[in-house]
Amino acid sequence: MRCLTGSALALALGMSASWAVAVSSPLQRTREVLEEARRIVDSPKMHNEKLADLSQLLKGFLDTNRMGREALGPSWEKFSPPQRQEFLELFRELFQRTYVQKLLLFERPDFVYVGEEVNGSRARVETKIVTPRDEFAVTYRMELANGQWLATDIQIEDLSLTANFRRQLARLLEKESPAELLARMRRKYGTGGAESEDEL
Predict the structure, then answer these.
(1) What is the 3-state secondary structure (H, E, C) of the chain?
(2) Going from the N-terminus, what domains does the chain have, and what CATH number goes with each?
């Protein structure tokens, strides 16, 4: 087995250190996204432009594919591959819309970054949203994927958004087929869907 020379070892260690520095911590990543979200919300742009900018920002932060699969649970097996793909696309729109409506479109929101707990490739980030009228805790559960921390669930006080959607989907799929559920979601969250809807 060939040994590394001193210069090669230094280079390897340097590259490793550079990679470690390049990856933001879960708390740093969350702060970056929320501060950019605040900048978008405070901008003079029209409402629909703000929503479009927020949606683009959140695509790189929320792992809605993971959330969608978990929200469907065992019912995932009832969906054909094309239906799964459409469901995940529609679920992304639903989840982002819910997150934006519940957490970002407050009057002058302020974000407080309480702390983080990292366990290998998983983490928990504690934050608060403070408005002139209220304050409540928001917890981000995160995982490291391809060198970037992604949110795999969001808990508002004691309510997990993924678990909340799991209950809604299970209730609907007791009465509807996957095709009927997708038609319902398409009407609300597809192109031209009702903008104010943030529940199934």
Answers:
(1) CCCCCHHHHHHHHHHHHHHHHHCCCHHHHHHHHHHHHHHHHHCCCCHHHHHHHHHHHHHCCECHHHHHHHHHHHHHHHCCHHHHHHHHHHHHHHHHHHHHHHHHCCCCCEEEEEEEEEECCEEEEEEEEECCCCEEEEEEEEEEECCEEEEEEEEECCEEHHHHHHHHHHHHHCCCCHHHHHHHHHHHHCCCCCCCCCCC
(2) 23-189 (3.10.450.710)
